[in-house]
Write a structure and sequence with these properties.
By secondary structure, this protein is of the alpha/beta class. The chain has helices at residues 10-23, 60-63, 72-84, 95-107, 121-136, 153-158, 192-210, 236-247, 299-304, 320-335, 338-360, 399-410, 432-450; strands at residues 39-43, 46-49, 54-57, 114-118, 140-144, 174-177, 215-221, 250-254, 278-281, 293-297, 364-370, 373-381, 386-387, 413-414, 416-418, 421-424.
Length: 454
């Protein structure tokens, strides 16, 4: 792909910004306190503003542009589909919808062979939980504190991070538990084996006290994303699978962020040799080019609705343009070995490079991740592991992380920053040179974070 020639146009940028400020209501924001960057364009791993500043995107949008921006083959597929059949209601059999479902089902683990399409990840979680409740006839769903599952009604109640607080609903039937996280272990564990065993015991104890016969499902992000990219210790997910089987609980894995190559496998579940009953997906399924998500359903749960109508649906379920983008994206990922590239970059560039940065920067408490899915846990003090900023910090309390983020942008890197962490989550087809460019920018920005260490 030939690099785009950036032609600054500050006047056009000012007009875009003015219209945004006048009419766009932004998510997760105090509207009067934000200053959104006006983006002029994007291509591959980069985007640029109207002033001619170009940024290496180490966020992949919101961790979804797995094949980068504006991949010509996917753009062409969307254009071709628009000329053929722009839209059609979900009750009909449409060739591109069927093909997208087939390609996804071929790559999901086990017998997750039926695909229910949604418009995104939150709706996928909503419907997975509904399926589990109807299948079991139970109500409660267990989810982890360090988690994010979406912003719709059920999904936000399942979410563990502070974005849930304003929308808590005590009747939602959600029970939370602590998932394993050795670096900040709630179980006083000192090894991965201890953390896994104690976390599993904690989960089973929670089930016992809640009443196994009341619990429909356990939902976990295979590798938690926004909450900190905490790779589960060996044996944990297999242990959860065993617990679910023991009590007749539906096991739901949320692969909205971790799926489609992000961890160096098609789905993160492959790393742990575990097959859930339901799996949610979105984001990377078509690199976010047209909104699409879904639930992959196993044979047993699908059979529940053979003669019993499933009481759920969406006007744009399996939208032809979104499905065409998914078909093209999956084909691109196969042809260009994008999943293999993600694994290679993680093993040879990002993993070693981030660990090397940790050796030199006292602000880095821990490096964790796989593929192109990494987190740096930033701390004030490595010995005490005190986070660089308090949990859910805002305003002046968040100044050290704000300074880090500003330094990264000054060096041409758009960083993913959440609480006391920065995540390195570039496109799955990021090149070695681009990954090294990102590491160099992180190196400079971490020097700013170091100034706030004790």
């Amino acid at each position: 792909m030939t690099p785009h020639v950036i032609e600054p146009d500050p006047q056009a940028g000012a007009a875009v910004k003015a219209a945004d400020r006048a009419h766009v209501f932004h998510s997760w924001s105090a509207q009067g306190l934000i200053d959104p960057l006006a983006v002029a364009g994007a291509e591959g791993s980069y985007f640029w503003d109207y002033d001619g500043n170009r940024y290496l995107d180490f966020t992949s949008g919101l961790v979804y542009t797995n094949i980068g921006y504006q991949h010509p083959k996917v753009v062409a597929a969307i254009q071709e589909q628009a000329g053929k059949l722009t839209t059609f209601a979900p009750a009909f059999a449409i060739d591109v919808r069927s093909e997208a479902a087939r390609l996804i089902a071929e790559r999901t683990p086990g017998d997750l062979d039926k695909i229910f399409f949604t418009n995104g990840g939150a709706e996928a979680v909503e419907n997975a939980v509904r399926m589990a409740r109807l299948h079991t006839g139970r109500t409660k769903v267990l989810s982890a504190y360090r988690s994010y599952h979406g912003a719709t009604s059920t999904a936000i109640n399942l979410t563990g991070d502070p974005r849930r607080w304003a929308s808590d609903n005590g009747s939602a039937g959600v029970v939370r538990f602590w998932a394993p996280f050795l670096y900040r272990s709630p179980f006083y564990a000192t090894t991965e084996a201890e953390e896994s065993a104690r976390a599993l015991q904690h989960l089973e104890d929670t089930i016992a006290f809640e009443g196994p016969a009341t619990i429909a499902a356990i939902i976990l992000e295979t590798v938690p994303g926004t909450a900190g990219i905490m790779t589960p210790p060996p044996g944990y997910l297999a242990g959860v699978r065993e617990i679910c089987d023991k009590y007749g609980i539906v096991f739901v894995l949320d692969e909205v962020m971790a799926g489609f190559g992000r961890t160096g496998k098609w789905f993160a579940a492959e790393h742990f040799d575990v097959v859930p009953d339901l799996m949610t997906f979105a984001k990377g399924v078509n690199s976010g080019y047209v909104p699409l998500g879904g639930v992959a359903i196993n044979a047993e749960i699908a059979a529940t609705f053979d003669k019993r109508p499933y009481p759920g649906g969406l006007t744009y379920s399996g939208h032809p343009l979104a499905c065409a983008a998914a078909v093209a994206t999956i084909q691109v990922m196969e042809d260009e070995k994008v999943v293999e590239n993600a694994a290679h970059i993680g093993e040879t560039v990002l993993g070693p490079g981030l660990r090397e940065l940790a050796e030199r920067h006292p602000s880095v408490g821990e490096v964790r991740g796989m593929g192109v899915f990494w987190a740096l846990d930033l701390v004030k003090n490595r010995e005490t592991r005190e986070p660089l900023v308090p949990y859910n910090a805002a305003g002046e309390a968040n100044a050290p992380m704000a300074a880090f983020g500003a330094a990264a942008k000054k060096n041409g890197l758009w960083p993913f920053v959440n609480m006391n962490r920065t995540h390195a989550v570039p496109a799955c087809n990021v090149s070695e040179a681009e990954a090294k460019e990102g590491l160099a920018a992180l190196d400079a920005a971490l020097a700013v974070a170091d100034e706030h260490t004790a």
